[in-house]
What we know:
Blueprint: H1 2-20, H2 34-42, H3 57-64, H4 69-73, E1 76-80, E2 84-89, E3 92-95
Antiparallel strand pairs: 1-2, 2-3
Amino acid sequence: MLVKLREFFRTAYNFFNRIRLKNTDVTLIASNCNGCCILHDLGLKFNSPFVNLWVEPSDFIRRERGVDSQTLASFRSALVGACLPQTLLGTRAISWNL
């Protein structure tokens, strides 16, 4: 009963948030998977280079201090070690959370 009630309120909450949303062409930058959950709840495209990515808080703050559209376009993908996908941020490699 409690689960159904929670689902009902969450569905209603997401519905009203979708109605209130004016800009649907956004890029959400988050240090973990919470950004994807927000995009999913709002029914938006995953228009972010940070989908399924987990970044250490110190690396995330350092990265976001000077972020712009040029920086977002400069991501380079690489396979490191046992075929784990990683992204190179300058000289540091951060792992994808798959």
